[in-house]
Amino acid sequence: MHVLLATSELNPYSKTGGLADMVSALARALAGTGLQVSVVTPLYRGMTKTFPGIEPTSWRWDVPIGDSLVDGRFHCQKPSPNLTLWFVEQAEFFDRPGLYGEVGRDYADNSARFIFLSRAALILARHLPEPPKVVHCHDWQTGLIPILARHDQLRTGWTQPPRTIFTVHNLAFQGSFPAASWGLTGLPSDWLHLESALHFQRVNFLKAGLTQAQAITTVSPNYAREILTPEYGCGLEGLLLKRYNDLGGILNGVDYEEWNSASDPALPASFSAQDLSGKATCKAALQREMGLPEDSGVPLFANISRLTDQKGSALIIQTLRSLVDAGESLQFVLLGSGDRALENAFGDLAKRFPTQVAARIGFDPALSHRIEAGADFYLMPSRFEPCGLNQLYSLRYGAIPIVRAIGGLQDSVVDPRDNAAQATGIKFTAYSAAALHKAILKALALWKEPAWLQHLRHNGMTADFSWEKHSAEYVALYESVCRE
Ligand code: ADP
Fold first, then answer.
1. 19 CA from centroid of ligand 1 (Å)
2. Which DSSP symbol is given to 246?
3. Which listed residue, of 123, 133, 192, 225, carries a Cα 20 to 30 Å from 306's Cα?
């Protein structure tokens, strides 16, 4: 079977978050099972220089976007016999400093940019010599693909369009645009209604995917249940309830080639569950790199994330302040960027407590590996978390996760209260600084119990979140939509 994955981010070519990691690892795992896999994604600025393996093809085309005819060209890379990556060149749309915007503001023409990407995906789906049986769409940027495919089938004589699957990586990002942007799609005006993409008088790309794809998935089973409720459904819970029979949750996996502490080129020393001595070297190097006193006896906490309300960044700041004020012996390192006020607050905390708190504002994948390797504990107090990847990376790298028991965090971390033998981390329930504070105090108590600490760490490092396991669920889904 041939499957085409459509995505606006693909690790290591382009990345702002977990979407990039997930699609890249899933594509490789699927190709490893023998499926023919293609991926279509934009050719963003600088990619052909950084990745000389991407080669231009002679395949040029144009598609109408509103009243304009916009031209595109495919570039291609074939990392393995079963895996082909298609990069969509359109300089005006994609040769820009940001993926979705700059200095905290979305690009004004994001609707046109991602309609164009969706159209490019359908050109591949229709004209590749061996057309894909399934197009697997990811997040709002590709949400219009199912309805565009249906239109092409009904109005342009495309006799065998692919089945479509839509995966929601984060229901909070919906791609909502003024109703007038429907004109850019080239779809008839009467195709915009409450059962397609219309949502509160606007065009909602995510809703289009949710209403029109044959099957819907989210990135963890628990999040698939949560989004049926008003608390987590972002106003789409009614629609999701209607599609209950077509909705499932498949937990994301980890690319253990990239996240392998025994062979990670970003680390100053390697280590494994059997031999942790290299982890001590990584911790000392991280303390030095971040300007903290080098001290193996102090527990080192960490967080790497987009700085937003979703990730509970404000809870971390409040809790750290009170713990350090109370004289607790701990260190904390942050790597992140996003909300300016949160960036400043972390910076202020680091200035006020230079021997205990260090903050690096920016996006730095190599440093993120060194932090996971050097940290003893990893904080993830998210308000909501569709899957979350850093708790999985933390588990593998021996940084015990302290997580709020929601979304994929609930599915991937085991608290000693739930199962002492298989415990891997510490969980708390309320979205509050008080609850996080209590969880960190538990971690500090654990720090003084080396046997228990080692038990949790070992369980985490040997837990299996490999894509080999999780991709089988996608294969089963592809087969089932093709049978329908
Ligand atoms: P989300 O997709 O909601 O941002 P995930 O936990 O699913 O959260 O994935 C985030 C991914 O982005 C992880 O691979 C994480 O390490 C990475 N990441 C987030 N912020 C940074 C940063 N500042 N520098 C490097 N990597 C980052």
1. 9
2. G
3. 225
Q: Retrieve residue 153's tokens.
A: 């089938």
Could you give all domains of the chain from N- to C-terminal order, each with its CATH number?
2-253+468-483 (3.40.50.2000), 277-464 (3.40.50.2000)
What's the rounded Cα separation, in Å, for the pair 132 and 196? 24
pLDDT in tens, 166-216: 999 999 999 999 999 999 999 999 999 999 999 999 999 999 999 999 999
Do the beta carbons of residue 130 and residue 101 sit within 8 Å? no
Pair type for strands 300-307 and 36-42: unpaired
| Residue among 21, 305, 307, 310 to mutate when testing ligand 1 (max atoms within 8 A of CB) | 305
| Alpha carbon of 261 to ligand 1 centroid (Å) | 18
Strand 55-65 to 68-80 pairing: antiparallel
Pocket test for ligand 1, best of 290, 389, 396 (most atoms within 8 A of CB): 389
Rounded to the nearest angstrom, the distance between the alpha carbon of 192 and the centre of ligand 1 is: 34
- For ligand 1, what atom is nearest to the CA of residue 372? 16
- Yes or no: say if 156 and 25 are a contact pair by the CB < 8 Å rule: no
Residue among 19, 8, 83 at smallest CA distance from 43: 8
**Cα-to-centroid distance, 147 and ligand 1 (Å):** 30
pTM: 0.95
